[in-house]
Design brief:
By secondary structure, the protein is α/β, with parallel strands linked by helices. 42% of the residues lie in helices and 20% in strands. A 5-stranded parallel sheet has the order 2-1-3-4-5, with helices on both faces. Strands 6-7-8-9 form a 4-stranded antiparallel sheet, with helices on one face. It has a 3-stranded antiparallel sheet with strand order 10-12-11.
């Protein structure tokens, strides 16, 4: 694992917790060093502070997602919803707002690693829902045969819904497929993922025909009208 945190004391605390849990952890203190280390040694998970010198965590995540799908747990002192959702939109898998409990961080790490273990299990064939195709094995989405780029969270939502077309999923249920966190504090992120998905898969995102809102409940995926 890699910890990218410019606060040396905090980084050392994280390293000790990770190693006490049986993980081998490396520590860097700026964004450029983080990318260099990631390129030379592909870790299972990156714990990434947003506010770092030379290259901040958001830019690290932006560059990283062009090169790797390593798990990213983002640490941020920015508590506004826009800042948090920007991190998710750039491809972060989870986030914690400072100050945080190291025990909570370790719980998030375990959740993310379990997701990787589940992903390594046998997966079904391509799911076809109308003009949409979802390939769980290759992590690919197509619309009328045209590839659609999705973040990890967006793909997790589509894969879950494509397995059971026309089923209505609550935000909490979709959250279990994306990050498995407390839905009362994080289910708003599902709305953002759905909004982004509609821009990518719908002919007219303002009048969706595939990814539909079921008011008062959640969302469902249908074959649409075309």
């Amino acid at each position: 694992m890699l910890v990218a945190e410019d606060d040396e004391r905090q980084a050392e605390v994280l390293r000790r917790y990770l190693e006490a849990a049986g993980h081998h952890a490396f520590v860097v203190h700026d964004g450029v060093a983080a990318l260099d280390r990631l390129r030379r040694h592909q870790p299972d998970l990156l714990i990434l502070d947003v506010m770092m010198p030379r290259l901040d965590g958001l830019d690290v995540c932006r560059v990283l997602r062009q090169e790797s799908d390593v798990l990213v747990l983002m640490l941020t002192a920015r508590s506004s919803e826009d800042d948090l959702l920007l991190g998710l939109d750039l491809g972060a898998d989870d986030y914690l707002v400072k100050p945080y409990s190291p025990r909570e961080l370790m719980a998030r790490v375990r959740t993310l690693l379990r997701r990787v273990q589940r992903a390594a299990a046998p997966v079904p064939a391509v799911r076809l829902v109308g003009r949409l195709g979802v390939d769980p094995q290759r992590r690919e989405v197509t619309a009328d045969g045209t590839p659609i780029e999705c973040t990890r969270g967006e793909f997790a939502i589509l894969a879950a819904m494509a397995e059971q077309p026309d089923r209505v999923f609550t935000r909490g249920q979709l959250l279990e497929h994306t990050r498995g966190l407390d839905r009362d504090s994080t289910e708003r992120t599902i709305d953002v993922h759905v909004m982004n998905l509609r821009r990518k898969i719908e002919p007219d995102p303002r009048r969706p025909t595939h990814l539909l809102t079921v008011y008062g409940v959640g969302y469902k995926l249908t074959g649409g009208g075309g």
